[in-house]
Amino acid sequence: MSQAGEILIYTGPMRGKKSDFLIIELEQARIAEKRVVAFKPAKDTRTAGEIVSRRFNEQGLPEISRRFPATIVTVPSDMKTVIDLNHPEIVGIDEAQFLSLEFIPFIKEMSDRYGIEFVISGLDMDYLGNPFGKTMPGLLAIAHKVIKTMAICYRCKSRHAIFTQKITGSTAQVEVGDTEYRAACRNCWYPYRGEISKASG
Ligand SMILES: [Zn+2]
């Protein structure tokens, strides 16, 4: 194949429906009878063997809204093995912010040389409003198309929440979970610095 496959990225805050958009793209590709495989990094330990999107019920508890089978990967060779076996036309990746840096040239090569189309979902910023690590900014740079998703602000109900708001827990950049985070708009967001900062926020 000589034509490069498009790299499309859905990015934004927690609860921004990124995984929903990703799964819808992959389901559509399957309906169109394309060969599709999906991956997720080992660091996302919430659900093994599948990409899962969630909605939150009236009690604020997460419920699964969509799911798609996925292979867990740690290094690019894990992904290459599955690609060589299945010859996918479309590859989906969820939680891409947890991929190691070496995935950036790998994904570029798979797109350029093999013509594989990628649909990727991941966080653009951490809960302090900084770019999330180095992999996600790199992927955003090589993407053909980037769609920023927005969420509903947990405080004022604006539909333009672009930040991830941490509301409880530790101050580590990477804390995998659903209940520790909300989405916030630019006006309502504050840099979480532990439980104490909530009072002033
Ligand atoms: Zn707000």
Can you describe this structure?
This protein has 201 residues and is of the alpha/beta class. Helix content is 22%, strand content 26%. The chain is built from 4 helices and 10 strands, in the order βαββββαβαβαβββ. Strand 3 (50-56) and strand 4 form a beta hairpin. It is globular, with a radius of gyration of 17 Å. The N and C termini lie far apart (53 Å).
List the helices and strands and how they pair.
Elements: E1 7-12, H1 18-31, E2 36-41, E3 50-56, E4 62-69, E5 71-73, H2 76-86, E6 90-93, H3 103-114, E7 117-123, H4 135-142, E8 145-148, E9 163-166, E10 181-184
List keywords for this structure.
201 residues; Rossmann fold; six-stranded parallel sheet; two-stranded antiparallel ribbon; binds zinc ion
Kindly estimate the percentage of residues that lie in beta strands according to DSSP.
25-35%
Q: What is the gyration radius calculated from CA atoms? A: 17 Å
* Biggest sheet strand line-up: 5-2-6-7-1-8
Globular, elongated, flat, extended or rod-shaped: what is the shape?
Answer: globular
Order of helices and strands: EHEEEEHEHEHEEE
CATH topology: Rossmann fold
Query: Any guess at the CATH architecture?
Result: 3-Layer(aba) Sandwich
Average the pLDDT over all residues and give the rounded result.
Answer: 91
CATH classification class: Alpha Beta
Q: How far apart lie the N and C ends? A: 53 Å
Helix content: 10-25%
Largest sheet, strands/sense/barrel = 6 strands, parallel
- Quickly count the helices: 4
Structural class: alpha/beta
CATH superfamily: P-loop containing nucleotide triphosphate hydrolases
Bound molecules: zinc ion
Count of separate structural domains: 1
Give the low-confidence spans: none
